[in-house]
């Protein structure tokens, strides 16, 4: 059996809620099939009080083996690096101290969600709690454990980033680890599992035909592409949300919401409103990944010139007004 401990720190618990939506099979069936023994989760386990404290101490002392340590939520370092803004209930010891000790015993340490990975929402604004990630502080390596931290497997922290994370990103990564199939080459430069981070939210987006012709939405509810005016970052965001939709059928863009790139460090502090696209001379500042600016401008102009009337009309409508029809062929 592979022992897994799950702790929650500064955050909303949304990643745990998302994980419970795992289906075909469900979360616990997957754990059982992979031989994962969930030692404790603050919302899913029966142990409480002194029982939990005793378990944590046994893990720190090495009496119980810790194969996978999962941390959800940011590390609250305040005030003044003491960590006393967040004490583990019943111990009087800061959560960051427990995490440091447990991470020293874990064969693999996993940050679940962008808060645990990079600081996330908890680190936004003035960050009075001194929130940070496990091994990153925003885009900078470091965080609570430091850039040089390595788990018992010799690997740095695995950052299953997202706000929240897709349930399959979590279960897929944990199963790979449990089966001994997760190596250093499985993550990108920000520690994210490449199984989802090697894709873009743009891939598989249901609005891609509008994107190709630059037929753009102008206000919430419009059918068109949301990149040009509505702040969508799907062409830059590393995730496969539109390839394997959430709950089998949904995603932010399918629901009419612009992608805010929640798998990236510091997404919580954009330089512009989430729902508006920042432009210079009418050109979006955030261009698609790997797309030179000159190419984008040239292709966008050509695309707009070739936009079918159907797409122009539908793009600024709340529903499909003009269905596809066969073009008339001049004889």
What does this structure look like?
The chain is of the alpha/beta class and 331 residues long. The protein has two domains: 2-196, NADH:ubiquinone oxidoreductase-like, 20kDa subunit (Rossmann fold); 199-319, Irregular (Cytochrome-c3 Hydrogenase, Chain A, domain 2), CATH 4.10.480. It has helices spanning 14-19, 27-34, 50-61, 95-103, 114-118, 167-178, 194-197, 208-212, 293-305, 309-315, and strands spanning 2-8, 36-40, 68-72, 75-76, 87-88, 93-94, 108-112, 131-132, 136-137, 140-141, 158-160, 279-280, 283-284. The strands form five sheets. A five-stranded parallel beta sheet has the order 2-1-3-7-11, with helices on both faces. A hairpin with a 2-residue loop joins strand 9 (136-137) and strand 10 (140-141). The model has no long low-confidence stretch (mean pLDDT 92).
Q: Which helices and strands, and how do they pair?
A:
Blueprint: E1 2-8, H1 14-19, H2 27-34, E2 36-40, H3 50-61, E3 68-72, E4 75-76, E5 87-88, E6 93-94, H4 95-103, E7 108-112, H5 114-118, E8 131-132, E9 136-137, E10 140-141, E11 158-160, H6 167-178, H7 194-197, H8 208-212, E12 279-280, E13 283-284, H9 293-305, H10 309-315
Parallel strand pairs: 1-2, 1-3, 3-7, 7-11
Antiparallel strand pairs: 4-8, 5-6, 9-10, 12-13
